[in-house]
Description:
A three-stranded mixed β-sheet has the order 2-1-3. The mean pLDDT is 90. It has helices at residues 22-49, 56-84, 92-125, 130-161, 177-182; strands spanning 9-12, 89-91, 169-170. It has one domain (9-182): Up-down Bundle (Rhopdopsin 7-helix transmembrane proteins), CATH 1.20.1070. The termini are close together. The radius of gyration is 20 Å and the shape is flat. The chain is built from five helices and three strands. The chain is mostly helical.
Amino acid sequence: MKNFSKVTSLYLSEYYGMEDLKALYFCIFLVIYITIIAENSVLIWVIYREKSLHEPMYVLLCNLAVNSLCGSTALLPALLVNLLSRTHEISLSFCQTQIYAIHTYAITEFTILAVMSYDRYVAICHPLSYHQIMSQKALKLVVFMWLYPMLAFLTVLVFTLRLPYCGRTIEKVYCINYLLDQTSWC
């Protein structure tokens, strides 16, 4: 019979080898994060304000920018905090939340790109009926491209949450589902 203790925190081991460069990495990632926020916010604002950009493709582009904000916020603030931290320990619940946010971001990104390709397909192959087809489907597609990824990865995460964890080390600078699953292999 194996001894299972309740794991409530995890260590991100990849931070330990970069002691001399943490300040440099912090500055680089902070600039990247600020740039992502600024560029995507401007893009969203321009599409929102300019009435001529209220076309399906620009609405999809706006959703891509919102998703980029969500994805970068799921990863970069925690990475910046861990670069300044001495222990690099995170709670299990935060790790699971980060896993959900990052994986949902990735699935949403691919779903938005698939919907954008469908939009271009309709525009090229059915140019005369493009507005009729897309105006009827636009809202449904936007709802689909946000709900599907959230529900799709939630089913995977539910199975991950049921695992008993016996390891405490993740060999990355952020949490991903596969490595969290590996900590349950006793």
